[in-house]
Amino acid sequence: MYTEVSWYLLNGAHGYHCGSNQTFQELYNGWQAVRDCLDEAGEYSNAPIVHAAILNKNHVPKKLFKEILVRFGATRRNEHDELPLTYSVRIGMGWEEGVADILEANRDAMNEVDSETNLPFFLFAASAKADLNTIYHLALKNLNIFTSQQ
Question: I need a labelling partner for 108 at 20 to 30 A (CA). Which of 16, 35, 82, 145 fits?
Fold first, then answer.
């Protein structure tokens, strides 16, 4: 259901189809179709659009990605119980590609423990597909992991 709903929301909502000949403005104008579709679907949990936007980041303009984060936040989990920050790092999204925006939308996600590995988020990120730039910026945002706690 996740893949089907996500694809529909990002690419086929109400007859709005993304084609290679469409301009950014046409895609951005399609946001109203996404809003209408989500309103019909009801609760956000029925349509994990933030995770879908992360998965399809190569096809989602940065401005639209930021609007999705503003509208839906980064605190909802997908069907695998992952927050958007964890999911984005796990699939290898870079800092500039959107991890910075996701972290800005939910700073508390840095305090998560990965349910599969039982590692704190920063250690999970370092062991996942995160690039060094992403790990560096995550470390800067969470310097207390490097201090001893007594």
Answer: 35
Give CA–CA dist 75/69, Å, rounded: 10
Instruction: Give the Cα separation of 38 and 112 in Å (integer).
Output: 28
Query: Per-residue b/e over 27-63, b at no fewer than 16 CB within 10 Å?
Result: beebbebbeebbeebeeeeebbbbbbbbbbbeebeee
Read off the pTM: 0.71
83-112 residue pLDDT tens: 999 999 999 999 999 999 999 999 999 999
- List phi, psi (to 5°) of 120: -60, 155
SS3 113: strand
